[in-house]
Predict the structure.
Amino acid sequence: QVQLVESGGGLVQPGGSLRLSCVASINIFSSYTMAWYRQAPGNQRELVAFISRDGKSILPDSVKGRFTISRDNAKNTVYLQMNSLKPEDTAVYYCNTIPSRAWGQGSQVTVSS
């Protein structure tokens, strides 16, 4: 059974930065493509970034140039570095494998002055 634990969220002013972490209790973590998603109130969950087994990443235009996804296979951890945050980035952020498994509790990110 896979367990995903996200952390690092919080309240930040517009233009600020946060780094989210996700520890995955999963065998052979390095064999999985990992992804970050977010869900704002009243919206569907959307893909924010994913990183392949060999470290290649893809991000949508809405966050490209501001967010960076990375992974540390030795620590079973995937990160999301978020810079130049905007109020519209406010959401609960989740990580998961691709294809997805059971979801964790997520990490709340609130961007507000």
Observations:
- The mean pLDDT is 96.
- The longest strand covers residues 18-25.
- Residues 13 and 113 are 5 Å apart (CA to CA).
